[in-house]
Amino acid sequence: MATRTLMKPANALFSGAHRLSVAPMMDWTDRHCRYFHRLMTRRAMLYTEMVTAPAVIHGPRERLLGYGDAEHPVALQLGGSDPAELRAAVRAALPYGYDEINLNVGCPSDRVQSGCFGAVLMERPALVAECVAAMIEVADVPVTVKCRIGVDDQNPEEVLPDFLHRVSVAGVRHFVIHARKAWLQGLSPKENREIPPLDYDLVRRMKAEFPHLTICINGGITTLDQARALLEAGLDGVMIGRAAYHEPGSVLIGADALWGDGAGRDAFAVVEEMKPYIAAHLAGGGRLHQITRHMLGLFHGRPGARGWRRVLSEGASREGAGLALLDAALAEVAGQAALAGG
Ligand SMILES: Cc1cc2nc3c(=O)[nH]c(=O)nc-3n(C[C@H](O)[C@H](O)[C@H](O)COP(=O)(O)O)c2cc1C
Hints:
Bound molecules: flavin mononucleotide
Cofactor: FMN
Organism: Paragemmobacter amnigenus
EC number: 1.3.1.91
Number of strands: 8
CATH architecture of the largest domain: Alpha-Beta Barrel
Distance between the termini: 72 Å
CATH topology of the largest domain: TIM Barrel
Largest sheet: 8 strands, parallel, barrel
Shape: globular
Structural class: alpha/beta
Domain DUS-like FMN-binding: 22-330
Strand order of the largest sheet: 1-2-3-4-5-6-7-8
Low-confidence stretches: 1-5
Protein name: tRNA-dihydrouridine(20/20a) synthase
CATH superfamily of the largest domain: Aldolase class I
Strand content: 5-15%
Helix content: 40-55%
CATH class of the largest domain: Alpha Beta
């Protein structure tokens, strides 16, 4: 019989980290991005990109799962639909000390569908229940699920409560619901994040129907004010994806106020704090662009934002690009700020 590993003691600073989280985003929320985001919010839960269970089991594990201590709290998102593989992937991830393990039941991309995982699993709640039960058997942190409200011609009013019931009976206490359907045929992954209409009300009703579950909402949330309003409406957490990535200066700086923490950091100070991290990356043979590509939106909406973005996107992938380029980009913002001020 399987023995349950004891849960790790929770770090007090991480308690309630799901109040705001940055969504898992392939090719975007890598470890450099998370380090950068962490400088703006000490509290929010940061999700990895999705890693498939077979990749964790057979692939370059350190490259796929390695990250820095400074990034906590971090949730690992797994993709898969084979209980034994998912159990093995969770076991392989244990030594890395993630704070949460999340199963992807929301991603509609073709590659994901062909392996029968992601959003297509909304049609197979019994299989999802088996998968999470296998993961929970070996996990020492909460196993959570990110899902949609339904797929294709499913009726969300019926399938979503049934899904939440069946998967929670298998032991999941925490769901992140992307409040729109996914169309498995005919829409690209990008269109699937924009075209199917959002139904926040249904997600709110799920919290009322399952008050014992942690229910976080995702999809189309672009400001902290919107996030605050959804929390006040009774939801347990808000997950933000694209807006956090494209406008971190307005979405993540100041986010810790959602936990009652004081004033947010200054964007210039965040850049200064990135410098030692970037220097270490360059010294290890890495490229500037690998980090600064995540920082292009930092000054979004402020004078000089365009110059900052231009200098970095034109220069950061050039051979030998280093901290001097970052300073040149910063000068674009500082110069404009001085003009605007006087
Ligand atoms: C570039 C990109 C990659 C994404 N990759 C993933 C992924 O790996 N796993 C996942 O569950 N969702 C993924 N998503 C979906 C987001 O997690 C999120 O559900 C979606 O963007 C809606 O939230 P938003 O409106 O706040 O962006 C991705 C989204 C984007 C833009």
